[in-house]
Specification:
alpha/beta, 2 domains, four-stranded antiparallel β-sheet, seven-stranded mixed β-sheet, Aspartate Aminotransferase, domain 2, 36% helix, Aspartate Aminotransferase, domain 1, 449 residues
């Protein structure tokens, strides 16, 4: 028995009804370079369950998990210690089986933890209101730009060269299909970009990242004032949520919208996710915020309760009135975030951030003494950029063969840019030991001889 019940005649009828010549035509917007030319070589088109388990296990064994060797990977996905209690609590039935809280009277637990999540996100970002999460940081960034377009009634966004290329690409893809313009600044590992020179009367927002994709920590207070003077908004992206425990918050700098990735807190590294998008803004912009907002109220007997206060998506209101097409929030990941941050508390969160920074300072000092290595940053949190004496991609491969994941070559994020080929992004967290750091330093010294 086939799993798909449609016959060839059914498929032909469906294609004829929608006016498509073939199934492949439905994927015309996917670039040819992203499509497989045929079936995956070496895989049978049918197997027994035991065979599938063995085959997939063998394929998975080719990966080197970040937790199995000294790892300094970062660039938007960070390895932090997640307490065992987090995984235990999120797998309790009342959390694991709950879904969209359309009926508040039977989903008080879900609504309450989302309310707590929103409160935490607003506090650490320095903003007045946060939503119940989005899919991930990249889609949060795109949603922030579209929100700025609605608020300013303008349609042009300036994207900093320090913005993570994945976040930039998701925003540009949204621009392509929703009809707004983007100005993409070139990569700027050492700063110096003049963002305000790109702002004109059509500009809705300037999008920056802190720490930026090269690990550089910046103060955007003056930029915020300059944006506001020209009627534009400042969007600040944060890919490393732990940095908010130590650095000045985006809200303190005058940001209008904050889009962030919450993976660092409560969510272990995965091969692509799932992650959780954080989104916060000023209360005056609340009505244009995407996603949904949980609020606190009292019932007829005066007892505290929780409700969906704002649901600005097409499932709840007319499609043309929806602020976004975000269909759900990353609820389980948001719960993990909330539990972990609750366990840490304010003092623990700050202490964790200080440990991360101290480890990075120690590692940068060690690596700066290696011949052929230069630290590019003059300020960083737990990630920084190295300039090597040879292309970074080959160095990373050589160290991986020696059992050290040395970091992310900048050429992987910015392919084809010759002046970036020797740059290597290195991140260190509380999970890295002194022995890990010594292994990286020794490995670099050996490979760069």
């Amino acid at each position: 028995m086939r799993y798909l019940p449609l016959t060839d005649a059914d498929r032909r009828g469906m294609l004829a009804r929608i006016g498509a010549p073939s199934v492949d035509a439905l994927f015309r917007d996917v670039p040819e370079s992203a499509r497989l030319p045929g079936p995956i070589e070496g895989l049978s088109n049918h197997m027994g369950e035991l065979q599938v388990e063995r085959t997939i296990a063998a394929m998975a064994a080719k990966n080197v998990p970040a937790g199995s060797v000294p790892s300094f990977l970062g660039a938007g996905a960070y390895r932090h210690h997640v307490p065992a209690s987090v995984d235990y609590l999120i797998q309790r039935g009342e959390f694991l089986t709950s879904y969209t809280p359309y009926q508040p009277e039977v989903t008080q637990g879900t609504l309450q933890y989302l309310f707590e999540f929103q409160t935490q996100v607003a506090l650490i970002t320095g903003m007045e209101v946060a939503n119940a999460s989005l899919y991930d940081g990249a889609t949060s960034c795109a949603e922030a730009v579209m929100m700025a377009n609605r608020l300013t009634r303008r349609s042009r966004a300036v994207l900093s060269g320090g913005l993570h290329p994945h976040y930039r690409d998701v925003t540009v893809t949204n621009a392509r299909f929703t009809g707004f313009e983007t100005v993409q600044m070139p990569a700027a590992p050492e700063g110096g970009e003049d963002l305000m020179a790109q702002v004109d009367a059509r500009t809705s927002c300037v999008v920056v990242q802190n720490p930026d994709v090269f690990g550089q920590v910046r103060d955007y207070s003056e930029l915020a004032e300059a944006c506001h003077a020209k009627g534009a908004l400042l969007v600040v992206v944060v890919t490393e949520a732990v940095s908010l425990g130590l650095l000045a918050s985006p809200g303190e700098m005058g940001a209008d919208i904050v889009a962030a990735e919450g993976q660092s807190i409560g969510n272990a590294l995965g091969f692509g996710g799932p992650y959780v998008g954080l989104f916060a803004t000023r209360e005056k912009f609340l009505r244009q915020m995407p996603g949904r907002l949980c609020g606190q109220t009292v019932d007829a007997e005066g007892k505290r309760g929780f409700v969906l206060t704002l649901s600005t998506r097409e499932q709840h209101i007319r499609r043309e009135k929806a602020t976004s097409n975000i269909c759900t929030n990353s609820g389980l990941c948001a719960l993990a975030f909330t539990i972990h941050l609750t366990l840490l508390g304010e003092a623990g969160f700050t202490r964790l951030a200080r440990i991360n920074h101290a480890n990075a300072v120690r590692l940068a000092g060690m690596l700066s003494r290696v011949p052929g290595v230069e630290v590019v940053n003059d300020a960083f949190f737990n990630e920084f950029t190295l300039r090597l004496s040879r292309p970074a991609a080959g160095v990373v491969d050589a160290l991986a063969a020696r059992g050290v994941l040395a970091g992310v070559p900048v050429s992987r994020l910015h392919p084809g840019v010759a002046e970036l080929e020797n740059l290597l992004l290195v991140a260190t967290t509380e999970t890295n030991t002194e022995a890990d750091m010594e292994a990286l330093a020794a490995g670099l010294e050996e490979v760069l001889k």
